[in-house]
Amino acid sequence: MPPSSLMGSLAVAGAAVATTLSLQWLWARATARVRRGRKGYSSIDAAKDAEVVKGVIPDAYEGTALATLRHDYCVSHSSPLSPLLQTVAQETQRQLRLPQMLSSPLTVQLLQTLIRASGARRILEIGTYTGFTALGMAEILKEGMEVVCLDDFSDEAQAEALCHQMLSAGGAAGARIQLRRQAALQGLRELSEAVEAGEEPFDLCFIDADKENQVAYVEELFGAQRSRPLLADDGLIVVDNTLWYSRVLRPSHRHDTSTAAVVQFNEHVLQSGRWHVTMLPVRDGITILQRAQRLTKMWAQGSHRP
Predict the structure, then answer these.
(1) HSE on the CB side for 179, CA within 13 Å?
(2) Element holding 100 (H helix, E strand)
(3) Do 282 and 67 meet the contact criterion of CB atoms below 8 Å apart?
(4) SS3 call for 253
(5) Is the pLDDT of residue 269 over 80?
(6) CA distance 54 to 74
(7) pLDDT digits over 195-245, tens only?
(8) Does residue 20 carry a pLDDT above 60?
(9) Which of 165, 187, 283, 291 has the fewest CB atoms within 10 Å, i.e. the most exposed one?
(10) Which residue windows are transmembrane per the record (predicted)?
(11) Is 118 left (phi over 0), alpha (psi -120 to 50) or beta?
């Protein structure tokens, strides 16, 4: 990287960190004032209220009875899943050993919203499991659009048969899905070569796979060394499990390989200066990435459209 580019990247990263720390300080002060001056019933009261939380079994991702209830309330007050997706969820729970790998319905709703808002036409998914999110995304695509999925089904081999069954039952949505049974890095490199050779890049990528390779996945999508990157200039990357059972908050847990990988990923994308990063506390944490230079161009042009 040329010295000028390096200094520019460092300046962007430094400004991002300084802004983040400043906002964290302001938010902490505002929160403290609310706690001192609050009147009436609040979430602090709800967390201890037997009328609210009695008998609730905390979800492993949400962590507390109140957080579990809040998540379930959000699900029940969002648009319902299609009958097909409900079937995928039910069969995954019934047949498989690791049904907790199924994404939240809110994740599907968020992905559908991002696709509609961005106008994404070509979508990539890394980690498909039983096809729940892939079908959710494919359902809202039009003819000629596609979802390409990469999964080697190493986490639970039995998921592969159920995935194929659900895609076959998916009708038009299932037909828009191209499932490639292979390791993600190998698949990404092959897809990158195809894009360099003339295929269209991807407009959105959803990553819900092994944590140890997430930095490598994002770097391959970014494609700094390629003439045509795998991810479109205005593309989005959505990454699941970036809170990782809240283990990222516990320093002693960072010796665990997966936790250390998630911590490294979270710090890498924030400090690189190449991404606009939004981390959302949806279930186990969802992070949305967009190229920082793309946003800079949009702001300079005074436009929010490509």
Answers:
(1) 26
(2) none
(3) no
(4) helix
(5) yes
(6) 19
(7) 999 999 999 999 999 999 999 999 999 987 888 999 999 999 999 999 999
(8) no
(9) 165
(10) 6-28
(11) alpha
| Residue 81 DSSP label | P
What is the C-alpha to C-alpha distance for residues 81 and 111, in angstroms, rounded to an integer? 13
Cβ atoms within 10 Å, residue 92: 22
Rounded-to-integer distance, Cα 215 and Cα 27, Å: 29
* 214-252 residues labelled b (16+ CB within 10 A) or e (exposed): bbebbebbbbeeeeebbbbebbbbbbbbbbbbebbeeee
How far, in Å, CA of 123 to CA of 112, rounded?
11
- The yes-or-no verdict on residue 253 having pLDDT over 90 is no
Report H helices in the chain.
Answer: 3-37, 43-46, 50-53, 65-76, 83-95, 105-118, 132-138, 159-169, 171-175, 184-196, 214-222, 257-271, 292-301
| φ, ψ (nearest 5 deg) of residue 17 | -65, -45
Contact 150, 182 (CB under 8 A): yes
Phi/psi of residue 288, nearest 5 degrees: -110, 130
Assign residue 201 a region: left if phi > 0, alpha if psi is -120 to 50, beta otherwise?
beta
Q: Measure the CA–CA gap between 262 and 189, rounded to whole angstroms.
A: 22
Tokens at residue 278, please?
């939004």
What's the mean pLDDT in 256-276?
95
